[in-house]
Each structure stands twice: as structure tokens, then as C-alpha cells.
Request: fold
Amino acid sequence: MRIDVWSDLVCPFCHVGRRRLELALEQFEHGDEVEVTWHSYQLDRSAPPVIEGSNVDRIAAKYDRPREEMVAQHEAMAADAAEVGLDFQWEKVVGGNSFDAHRVIHLARARGLEAPVTERVMRGWYSEGAAIGDTDTLVRLAVEGGLGEKDVRETLGSDAYGYDVRADEATANQIGITAVPTFVLDQKFAVTGAQPVDGLLRALELTWEDRGNSPEARGGGCGGCEGGCACGA
Reply:
């Protein structure tokens, strides 16, 4: 069975969604027969590389919402993250553009290092306050994930893998994806948002049972990011 996932590296829901999918696959009877492919998605292509200042204050101002509301939303997300073993240090988050980070992930895939590099970059942004839109910071995280520094700097100093990022985004647009994370199971069923582990497990089971039937796009869920939420896009 195949799962395609669209996510942004600067989306808190995507971090939680990734972990919940991992946990669901651990419980899924046929987990070793599932292939997961991760696709790039940018919530805000126009963002500068690094956005200085408090992320919470910026979001509250951008969408004209009380700061207390944004703090409560972030605290709730941190609690959800903790339930699946993640550490969301929302007060440290540094906003910015994720395009180069997505390019680095495509480089890592080409080198057979996608999982460790993705984990290191995401943890840096999510838990350590790393500005992944900053070139030197991104290089450091990628190297700590296993890539060679020269390889990363040459990639970032060129247009390499930019087409791959845009191709992922174009596919998302073609199939109607407007929120992340979005999980497309066996090219038939679409599940959007950081769904509970039980919900993802049930989706896996239903999709497995449905193998052999013709594709039919179906949506469901909530808790995803379309912009205007805690990620600040």
C-alpha cells in the first residue's frame, strides 16, 4: 500500500501528524507493506528567509486575534505533541521561508538520508528555535543529520532540487490539496490534518480492505493548517 503525504517543515500540525502516522503504522498489521512518500508543501512562498521577533505576537497581529488566544492555541498544540513524545517549544519558534529546507530534504532523499535529515531539521525548528530559513543554520542541521557540508552548500548555492519542490506543490494543487498535513492513501482516500492515531489506523485498515477497487477521492478530518493558524502562514 502506498501513502503520499504533503507537509510543510514549518507547520506544527505536520510534526504531530508525522509522528501519529508512525505510531499508527506500528500498530497496523500490514505496516511493513506500506511505502510512505513525503512531498513538499509551502504554506507561505512569499515569506522572508527568517522572520525576527515573537512568532505568537506576529500571528496575533497578522490575523487580528488576541495574543491570549494564540498562546492558548500553542499550549494546546504543545500538549498534543507531548502525548506522542514530541517537544514543541513554541516560544522559541522562528518563522521564515521553508523552500531551501525542502530542497535539502530532496537532496537527502537522493543520498539515502531522508529520514535522519528530515528528523534533524524538523526537530531543530520545532524544539530548538532553529531558523531553518537561515543558510548556515540549515547547513548545520543537515550535516548533523548525515549530509556532507560541501554537498549541502553547493545545493543551496544553486537551483538544485527547486524543481522537485515546485513539482510536489503543483501536484498538490492539481489534486485539490489546500491544507497540510494531507495523507493520500493508495491514491484513493485523502485524510487531512493531524488526525488521532486511532483515526489514522482505521483509515489504513479501510484502505487495505479496499484494495483493488477504483480510485475515489475522499476527504475528511480537521486540525490541518491552511494558513491563519499557529504556524503563522
Remarks:
- The chain is about 50% helix and 10% strand.
- Strands lie at 2-7, 35-40, 50-51, 95-96, 182-185, 189-192.
- The CA atoms of residues 81 and 132 lie 20 Å apart.
